[in-house]
Amino acid sequence: MRTSQTLFAAVSIVAAASLTTACDAPAGAGDSKEPSKGAAESTFVFAGKRGSAGQAWRSLGPDGTEKLHGETRLMLASGAERQVVEDVTLDVSGRIVSAEITTTSSTPNELPVRLRLVPSEGLVRIVSGSTETSFHVPVDAPWVYTALPAGIPATPIAAWIAKRGADTAPWLRVVSASKAWSYLAPLDQLVVQTEMGTTVVLGEDAADTDTVFVRDLRLSGGESITRTNGPALVL
Questions:
Q1: CA 63, chain centre distance (Å)
Q2: How many C-beta atoms lie closer than 10 Å to residue 161's C-beta?
């Protein structure tokens, strides 16, 4: 599922407004359904105090394959607005099969950046305007990504990917897009089990997850976004 920047901005505004109707419901799972093809789908809505908003779609196939789509609008302390659209497929073990992340900014003359992760080729591609660069990444552990281009913090999708990867491996391979490199990190540096679930640390940001999805995301700039029940939006 993909949307244009214009449609995403419009949906984000509606999403933020729809959250006000959900105050009477507990912050639990998203709206779930069982499509005829047998895939279980859920929609999660997020809102932040500074005006940040987001949605995440999660689909689990009968074979255990997990597809994720996220649209996140982040309002930073500087006043700048960042938008992130993510499409990720995970295999049954929680490893990234493919991922494409597109980031845009409200800052004038700042080009959109598209990040592609292709573990089958051990390759990460970064496209900015007409410029494309790439770098190789070992496939010795599940990949997670952080330090997105254009000063973008972590997202709920990125945090969930780290949590899923940690379920089946003692190490994680952290891909830093802004530095065009990666490093191998032990789980206790990125993922911590708590009484409430799992806390994930991505760079200077942190997220709390439960068995359903990410509950909240705390950004280094002081903003935080929280999962809340609300009407599912269909694009």
A1: 22
A2: 28
68-85: b (≥16 Cβ within 10 Å) or e: bbbbbbbbbeeeebbbbb
48: β partners = 225
- Beta-bridged to residue 123, according to DSSP, are 118, 136
Q: What is the DSSP letter of 233?
A: P
Task: Tokens for 28, please give them.
Answer: 């639990």
One-letter amino acid at 225 equals I
> pLDDT tens across 126-177, in order?
998 889 999 999 999 999 998 776 567 789 999 999 999 998 889 999 998 8
Entry field: residues in the chain: 235
* Burial of residue 190, with CB atoms counted within 10 A of its CB: 0-12 exposed, 13-18 middle, 19 or more buried: buried
pTM of the full structure: 0.80
SS3 19: helix
Average pLDDT, the chain: 81
